[in-house]
Specification:
By secondary structure, the protein is an all-alpha fold. It is 59% helix and 0% strand. Helix 1 packs across helix 3, helix 5 packs across helix 8 and helix 10 packs parallel to helix 11.
Length: 322
């Protein structure tokens, strides 16, 4: 690539921030039809060097370059949110999962950013940008969120800070969700239990997403469990609560599901606790029952456990010669 410098201005772009330099490259490609293929977008120095080379090559005249820089810097102010605007997501994996899932499915109208003129009908920004819908870690989801906000290019000037307004609204939405009781707080952090709950949610959401014959239309989006597959226990824990955070069905449906799930879990645990046990119905004298109660209280165990303890002790004494 030939490089032409004018008045010794070798670095019109001073910032070495990879997000900013990458945006400048995208902006030059879209707005000035300058080809930027072949630049290593994963390396900040490569992006910084490339954007300066291109500006110096295509805009060697100082006045032209000044006008370009004013235009491109205004566009950057409009489009690149400061990194600290994402801190609330970096610090909270649940919040980041919710926002990532929301961006995957939200319409452009819900998001508040007009649809791209090049997007096919019915395709939202996340789909249009061809972003991954199967991230496997918090870090990967964060990168996707950064890419989502960075890759949408809103014309500027004027600088309206639309993305900043969108981020504020999304943060407020999350606050409303966060202030509600934590879903499935009672569920133990055990692989079998979480997998059981995930499959239960998936079955319900798939059932609701299946047309019951003929034409079917729903304003709610398909539940996350119908299109996302977590690949580890920790990811499944996060996805389970994320799917409930994102569930936009009627509140009664969500509440009933959580209630029934809790009941089913308690029944399952009760059945497990009764494995290899037989019910015993008998009568004791009042005084004997009182003594049994006192013994159970003294040992801080249930009456049934106390009775079992006494029987086993007497059995060993009788048949083992102890």
């Amino acid at each position: 690539m030939a490089i032409h410098y004018n008045d010794g201005r070798k670095t019109p772009i001073k910032s070495r921030d990879i997000r900013i330099c990458s945006f400048y490259l995208d902006w030059l490609g879209i707005n000035k039809n300058i080809r930027t293929e072949g630049v290593n977008r994963q390396d900040a120095d490569s992006c910084h060097q490339a954007v300066n080379q291109l500006i110096n090559q295509y805009y060697p005249d100082r006045e032209q370059q000044d006008r370009l820089l004013a235009e491109i810097n205004a566009a950057c102010d409009e489009n690149i949110l400061p990194a600290d605007r994402f801190d609330w997501l970096e610090r909270d994996e649940r919040a980041a999962f919710w926002l990532w899932g929301y961006l995957c499915e939200a319409s452009d109208y819900q998001l508040g950013i007009s649809q791209s003129r090049d997007a096919p009908f019915g395709q939202n920004w996340y789909q249009f940008l061809q972003l991954n819908k199967s991230p496997t870690s918090h870090q990967e989801r964060m990168q996707l969120i950064f890419n989502f906000f960075d890759w949408i290019i809103i014309p500027a000037p004027p600088v309206n800070r639309l993305k900043s307004q969108v981020m504020d609204r999304l943060k407020d939405q999350w606050k409303n969700i966060y202030n509600k009781p934590v879903p499935l707080k009672w569920l133990p952090d055990e692989e079998e239990a979480v997998l059981w709950a995930w499959n239960s949610l998936k079955s319900l959401q798939e059932e609701k997403n299946t047309p019951n014959g003929g034409f079917s239309f729903s304003l709610s989006s398909p539940g996350l469990s119908t299109w996302f597959t977590p690949l580890s226990h920790s990811e499944r824990c996060l996805a389970l609560r994320g799917a409930i955070d994102l569930w936009d069905d009627t509140p009664d449906t969500r509440r009933l599901f959580l209630l029934n799930l809790n009941k089913a879990w308690n029944q399952q645990k009760l059945r497990q606790s009764r494995t290899d046990k037989k019910a015993l119905n008998t009568y004791l004298k009042n005084e004997t029952k009182m003594r049994l109660d006192l013994l159970a209280a003294h040992h801080d165990i249930r009456i049934s456990d106390m009775l079992e303890k006494l029987i086993n002790a007497h059995y060993l004494k009788t048949f083992s010669g102890e």
